[in-house]
Amino acid sequence: MRGGGCWLPLSVLFAAVTTTSMLTVPFAAVAERTPDLSSFVVDSVRTAHPPPIDASIDHPVWRTAAHVALTWNVDFRRPASEQTDAYLLTDGKYLYATFVARQKATLLVTQRTNGSAVNNDDWVAIFLWPSGVNGFRYMFKCNAIGVCDQTSSENNDFAPIWKAAGRVLTDGFVVSMRIPLDVLRGDRRDQWRVQFARQVNRTGDDTPVWAHAAGMDDEGQAEFSGYLNGMRSLGASLRSRARLAIYGLAAAASRGTGGNTSRIGADFAIPITPTASVIGAVHPDYSNVELDQQTISPTEFRRQFREVRPFFTQGASFYNKFTAIDDPGNIILYTPGIPTPAVGLAVEGTQGDYGLAAFNASSSTRTDAAQTASWSSADKVYSAAFQRVTVSFPGFVDRALAGSVRVDNQRNAYAYADVGTDAGTNVLNPTEANWEEIGAAHHGPTSFLGAALRKIGAYYNPMDGFVAHPDIAGWAANGEQDVLPHFGPILFVALQSSIDRYHDAKGNLDQADQNLSLLVQTRSQFSFSVSSGSSFLLSSTGVGGLFDQNGLTVGYRSQSTTPTSLTYNVGRFGNGYLRSWARLASFQTGPRGAVSFEVDNTNLATDDGQTQKQSLERAAYAYQFGPQASLAIGVRRIIGVSPPVFVGPVYVQASNVSVALHDRVGRDDVYVVYGDANALNTPPQLLLKWIHYFGAEKGT
Description:
Elements: H1 7-23, E1 41-43, E2 66-69, E3 72-73, E4 78-79, E5 84-90, E6 94-102, E7 123-129, E8 138-143, E9 148-152, E10 163-169, E11 172-180, E12 192-199, E13 208-209, E14 226-229, E15 243-253, E16 261-273, E17 276-282, H2 310-313, E18 330-331, E19 343-351, E20 354-362, E21 367-376, E22 382-393, E23 396-408, E24 413-424, E25 434-444, E26 447-456, E27 466-467, E28 472-483, E29 490-503, E30 509-522, E31 526-538, E32 544-547, E33 550-556, E34 564-574, E35 576-589, E36 593-606, E37 611-626, E38 629-641, E39 651-665, E40 668-674, E41 685-695
Parallel strand pairs: 1-14
Antiparallel strand pairs: 2-5, 3-4, 3-13, 5-6, 6-11, 7-8, 7-12, 8-9, 10-11, 12-14, 15-16, 15-41, 16-17, 17-19, 18-27, 19-20, 20-21, 21-22, 22-23, 23-24, 24-25, 25-26, 26-28, 28-29, 29-30, 30-31, 31-32, 31-33, 32-34, 33-34, 34-35, 35-36, 36-37, 37-38, 38-39, 39-40, 40-41
């Protein structure tokens, strides 16, 4: 598969068929009738005698509960193969839900600590939209033993105290939940939207849901959820409470890193309407040091990193509501690029079909601000968004604006248009500081065909944004076709392809990509993928390079918390020929522990006869004490020269050791951390952080 080989014509052909097929779909298809979900309606049943949370439906009160059956496999678009029943009650203060899940395969239960890793186990979940499809979404999810996770579109740090229990049966499991209604925000309507869902991760071939219709992609789509009647005067009508989080941070460090220090700060939220709040941070807490994002994976573009700072993550869902087909890397607001401010103030919320948000993050030397407004019709067919981002400090200013419109028939087609502009100190030619894009797609249950025309000017590069490659104008297309066998060892086969061609303002070809990949997932949790293609990139200085990595990956349990994989890539990379390996092995050590090892290598043979090598070695251990407490230990080393892209080689020799202990006790979070998992080298520091939440609960 060297240099793309015979795969390149297949890639171009597949993408060409993608583009042609999409463009022949009449635009009128977008206006087709929206999904009919009138048969998925359930009435809330009130009780004066709350049921026990004991992972059972034996209590007599459950005989009066509302009942639904999860009969549709949303991932594979066919009837569910496993039986799942859900029951619902309320006493006006709590919502009670119990799931009875039958399962022929052995249960997958690895998590003993609450958090997002529950998603990798077999789980059941309830989704709630108290303000309808354009309001906040809440999700409550549990694995088979009652270890849980929760999310909210209002705040990425949503973590109220709630109760659940799980019990393993000989043929499945039972989970009971008690969800406090006063942590949900709504507009006092009588009819909520609701969805019941389940995931069988052990086999990967069953994702049962209750409500469903043609065009549905996953269980979390409000427009494909059912209806829950009789909710007026419950939960959403309760008065929202203000929240104050006081934290203390103590750091013991060497003299070379600043010596001993301590500080105190606060985060607060004050409701101004039932669905909107003013949010602020004074001396914000930015001591999150538990996420390791270091990598040596070769790329010809600037790397993107995940935001972890609470002030920015809590309102992230309001921003960057733009559609992009075959996105080349264009984000108008990229908060990881914003330096740590001393003070932050934000307004975030929804009002009917509108979403509104704004923030101002400032220090003594710099101010970063953003405002956004979005609208969507009640049936999600039409939507629009506007966003403004500004940066200012002495001698510098940057102002970026962007808008978007989209029409989506919620069945099989959508079209969109995006426009943006950048202005300020760095914009020397305003006529080359624009972003213009239109695109459309047609998709079916197992296929996707899309294409876009896009132009990004040479001076469109917002200071607080992320533009991987300015000065491009051209077209892009991508497609996917899935094959879903009902029987046999193969779970699914996915064929994906993309192609693009862009020119700069002088008419030179400055980016050209074509890629083809094939993924095979088996029922035994093994996966195999091959990829091929080539990429040409011309830098702003006129230096060009070819990047045609072709590779093979073999994985086992790749979607679990303990994945194992082996990846090999080979091909041209800029000024040489690159071979790279990525090896990952992870496994459980008892019911509460897990170990992972990673060894990655890059080996570049340059055209002038040099050899440049780099390696990353990483080991980690995690232990789950219980639902609220966990320990993580990590060791990492990076050494060597990374494959250069249009710059000279840079030698790196760095090592890192980190230890993080977290425990949550009621309304208190306690962290004890040594080092910084995300730092290139270990900062010799010991951090002790304590947070107490007054008023409303964490993230509510």
